[in-house]
Sequence to fold (197 residues):
Amino acid sequence: MNTNKLKAKDLITVAIFTVVMIVIYFIVSMTFGMVPLAYPFLVAVISIPGGIVWVYVRVKVPKRFAILIQCIVITLVFMLLGIGWWLALGFLGGGVLAELISGAGKYRNFALNTVGFAALMFCVHLGGFLPTLMARDWYYEFCVTGGMTAEWTQTLLDFMSWQVMLFTGILSIAGAAIGMLLGKAMLKKHFERAGVA
Fold:
């Protein structure tokens, strides 16, 4: 019997904690979305509680395609809610990277799982904020059409630069690592039982 295949209970676990990650994303987004100068730090902050959830799912479902399924579901939900295609590409591209990186350690290597999650969150950061530098007119129209004020959008666009993009990207990677370490500390017994290094 192949224990590496996803079973119904695995899919349920992935689904439940995918919903948790989506809720985290929206709570932080609504909070940081009120202040345009705080908004670029969104992914860095999300990465910390998100990393705790990510650790748990990797320990409970260390199987092929679990990560990819999780990222596809998140992307589909966000697309239904009107996210831009840049961010959708960030989630999907990051999901593929995370799947490949974690898969190299058979989903049981904590270091590779951390690198995989950091890669995912960095891609999400790129998808969320590259348009502020590379497609400013599109981003302006997207935000204003989506309900943000012209003043809020322009303040964000004026604040963003390649230096800010790099700095907040590095913070997103750091946040992912912190979240994973916090998750490992909180779930120490689960790690020992699952034999995750």
In short: The chain has ten helices and no strands.
